[in-house]
Give the backbone structure.
Amino acid sequence: MFETWEELEKSIENCKKCKLYSTRQNIVFGIGNKNAKIMFIGEGPGADEDKKGEPFVGKAGKLMDMAFETVGIKREDVYIANIVKCRPPANRDPEEDETYACMDYLRNQVMLVRPKVIVLLGRIALQNILGKEYKITASRGNWIEKKGINYLPTWHPAALLRDESKKIDFIKDLQKVAKLN
Ligand code: URA
């Protein structure tokens, strides 16, 4: 584990810990307030994120920004990262060797940010952080405390694009964290 952001960021340059390096355009490390109280963890970069090197800048990200605005969260006040930092081809789920290889970067980010609350966006984030036994449908909207961090699983914003009715849940969940900011 690195004690500084500089060391951590340097350590990921040219990362070849898993096969995703060979198809990526950019590493999507993470962005936001490095002292944030609230951290968001998604799954992995899509095409837009891969192009830009920033998390949640595509369609799902735009929807997340709109939800942020609705509940009064500013993107620059929170920290946003993903389980894997490089885009899985054709947006497939990240594979176990990939999430395993990438997890130390995320652990180090969490250690440096020291958030009070981590919002887990979707099944992949939930199961990789808290364990495969957690199901997103059952866990969504329920606080889970582990090692001094309060986790709130919610829908992945891309799920809202497929199912409008999930937007209400998503906003409700974000309202719970917005008041902690
Ligand atoms: N979906 C994710 O899980 N993360 C991103 O950064 C973009 C889309």
Q: What stands out?
A: The mean pLDDT is 97. Residues 42-46, 49, 55-56, 58, 60-61, 82, 158 surround uracil (CB under 6 Å). The two ends are 27 Å apart (CA to CA).
